[in-house]
Amino acid sequence: MPLAHDKAAxxxxxxxxxxxxxxxxxxxxxxxxxxxxxxxxEPASRLTLxxxxxxxxxxxxxxxxxxxxxxxxxxxxxxxxxxxxxxxxKSDSHEQSAxxxxxxxxxxxxxxxxxxxxxxxxxxxxxxxxxLCETMVPVKAGKQLFAFLKTGQVMVKEPTRDAxxxxxxxxxxxxxxxxxxxxxxxxxxTPIVPPAKYRAMTTLLKTYARQLSLASQRILTELDNxxxxxxxxxxxxxxxxxxxPLTLSEVANAAGISPFHFxxxxxxxxxxxxxxxxxxxxxxxxxxxxxxPNLSITEAAFECGFQSMASFSRAWNRLxxxxxxxxxxxxxxQ
Length: 334
Fold this sequence. Notes:
Layout: H1 5-19, H2 22-35, E1 39-43, H3 60-67, H4 72-85, H5 93-99, H6 112-119, E2 124-127, E3 133-141, E4 144-154, H7 161-169, H8 177-188, H9 195-225, H10 229-241, H11 248-255, H12 259-270, H13 274-289, H14 297-303, H15 309-319, H16 324-330
Helix pairs in contact: 1-9, 3-8, 4-5, 10-11, 11-12, 13-14
């Protein structure tokens, strides 16, 4: 399943704030100047938005194709097909056919969480029907994938006339001789970046993605400080009472609003539901207790408010990559 609408909106706000920072704007400008390539930061909730959706990011070839009105239907179908192969939504046969030309080989993950797992922290490169490459680098807040740094619209090998004719054959309508001549000129003027250099540039983006992840944590903290008073009261109550059995009604009462409005406002403000927030809080507190070698994992789980080991295991496994035992072992110097 894709990110819920309210959660996607929450991260869209985070992305907008990252894009507005001097650091991001300076890096984007420097990357363009140094490499000649476009760079965008796109939401993970819309996994494969085309770089050519932004005019300044188009190559001459893509711009001409778009202006002619017959172009990006093929590219957009390819991108949507990749999204749908990733399990974002169902696909139709036309779009699956367009996506078949990409270098993407994952086996249809069923959710954005699966997309998160499939991507890990590694950049991924896709090749469009015309032989142009795009690269996406995951950006995460903690474990949550929320955006991609995207670059590309270049070739990594010399274009050929056979490849150009093949690309023209995949368009929906026949081109006039003049259109073909203009497109051919732009096609052969597309930037070519040797594979080793292209890999080096994507490695730079991977490093910068980690910096964006750290910046996102700071921005999320700032957003938390801008929360409505009722949500701050609720969080304070949860921080004080997470060890006890808690209900939504009880916390809503502490926040001073009705359970219905509390549930809606909490999710809109925090980006996740009350129950999920409480589970994450308890897991984080449990991780602190696991530093104590004299406390068993079961004791730590119950101390943090979990009512059974089954509920603890479900929450932990959903949020953490290591098991509790592995996590505890990682705390001990080798």
